[in-house]
Design brief:
- It is built from 9 helices and 20 strands.
- The protein folds into 2 domains: 2-38 and 154-218 and 310-361, 3-Layer(bba) Sandwich (FAD/NAD(P)-binding domain); 87-147 and 220-307, D-Amino Acid Oxidase, Chain A, domain 2 (2-Layer Sandwich), CATH 3.30.9.
- It has helices at residues 10-21, 37-40, 55-77, 97-111, 125-131, 152-165, 206-210, 275-288, 334-350; strands spanning 2-6, 25-30, 42-45, 85-87, 90-94, 120-123, 140-144, 148-151, 169-172, 175-180, 183-188, 191-193, 197-200, 220-230, 240-242, 248-251, 256-260, 296-307, 314-317, 324-328.
- The strands form 5 sheets. It has a 6-stranded mixed beta sheet with strand order 9-2-1-13-20-19, covered by helices on one side.
- The longest helix has 23 residues, at 55-77.
- Helix content is 30%, strand content 28%.
- The chain is of the alpha/beta class.
- A hairpin with a 6-residue loop joins strand 19 (314-317) and strand 20.
């Protein structure tokens, strides 16, 4: 059978790679839209201590965190070594003892479910600063060794490289869809393409692609602005930092520290840095790590997250057509759960039994 995956971000690339590993005939096409969330973002893979408590999202994040090492090994075996993924540990910050104990208990409870949580311990301010030196003097932390980070751009390049190394066809260009009987056909750079199965994974732009099919999802773009700083010292071993807010901080090799990120609803596809957005990111980041005040501000990136109606992914077959699967709506969890949702999308398209209940993720749901 032939498969067409539309959208080359983290979700689409993961779906296409999974299909290739199943031995399918796969074409992946991407329109290279400005503001793709995958390339702007830096991901934290640590559902073991999280400000987001939704059990449905936790189930997906847990499965994805467990899958990540297997995926990274598979990519390396297929010739893509630089995945941008590293198990570095995580610091969940707390300003008071009660919060510290709540975070500790949360991680310990989750460790009873899976050993991937790793070591869990509470840290004094001095101990936390020893692991992430710029931290403020008024916070303590729970350390979880099973936390990981991922560079979205590097992981995406690795997925695309491994996909092509396995024989997959990758194309860039404009894509449109139309109805033909009970199925969907695609046009890539105005050339008609018929595929036995089509997976639409076009992120925040999905409604534009589906409109000719008479479909509209409860989906909107949410702008995120994320700051990239550099320091003189090496930061490769620093853990990710999780304040009790929607913001976060993580470090990569060569002194790169990332502060994120705004969550701007009603932004549309307005691809601009704003004074308020940059201020928000830097203010929140420096409140947590004030010693970064002298760091070099190298870049502020913009990405448009695809936001569904309830913060959960939009994933499933579209019953009106015989060959259409939709996968989008990952919101701020794109790099956390994207590879796993891509695998589920591939399994849906091939009719493979999946190990998750996903009825509540129906892409056409209205609430």
């Amino acid at each position: 059978m032939s498969y067409l995956v539309v959208g080359g971000g983290i979700l689409g690339a993961s779906a296409a790679y999974e299909l290739m590993k199943q031995g399918q005939d796969v074409t992946l096409v991407d329109s290279q839209m400005e503001g793709q969330a995958t390339y702007a973002g830096a991901g934290i893979v640590c559902p073991w201590v999280s400000a987001r408590k939704d059990p449905d999202l936790y189930a997906l994040a847990r499965a994805s965190a467990i899958r990540y090492p297997e995926l990274v090994e598979s990519l390396r075996n297929d010739g893509a070594d630089d995945t941008g993924y590293r198990l570095c540990g995580a610091l969940a910050l707390a300003e008071d003892e009660a919060t510290l104990q709540e975070l500790y208990q949360e991680a310990v409870t989750k460790r009873e479910e899976t050993s991937f949580v790793g070591d869990v311990k509470t840290l004094s301010n001095q101990e936390a600063q020893a692991m992430f030196p710029p931290l403020a003097d008024d916070v303590k932390a729970v350390y979880v060794s099973g936390g990981a980070r991922v560079d979205g751009a590097k992981l995406n390049r690795a997925l695309l490289q491994a996909f092509q190394n396995c024989g997959g066809q990758y194309l860039e260009g404009s894509v449109s869809l139309e109805v033909s009987g009970d199925h969907v056909v695609a046009y890539i750079n105005e050339e008609r393409i018929e595929a036995d199965e089509i997976i639409v994974a076009t992120g925040a732009w999905t409604n534009d692609l589906l409109k000719p099919l008479g479909l509209e999802l409860l989906l909107e773009p949410q702008r995120g602005q994320i700051a990239h700083l550099t320091l003189i010292e090496e930061t490769a071993d620093w853990p990710v930092v999780l304040p009790q807010s929607s913001h976060y901080m993580l470090a990569f090799e060569a002194g790169r520290v990332v502060m994120g990120a705004t969550r701007e609803a009603d932004s549309g596809f307005d691809y601009r840095l704003t004074a308020g957005g940059v201020h928000d990111v830097l203010h929140e980041g420096l409140a947590v790590a004030p010693d970064l005040v002298e760091a070099t501000l190298e870049d502020v990136r913009i990405g448009f997250r695809p936001m569904g109606p309830d913060g959960k992914p939009l994933l499933g077959r579209v019953n009106a057509f015989s060959n259409l699967t939709v996968a989008t709506g990952l919101g701020p969890s794109g790099l956390t759960i994207g590879p796993y949702i891509g695998k589920l999308a591939a399994q849906l398209a091939t009719g493979t039994k999946i190990d998750q209940t996903i009825d509540h993720l129906d892409p056409l749901r209205q609430t």
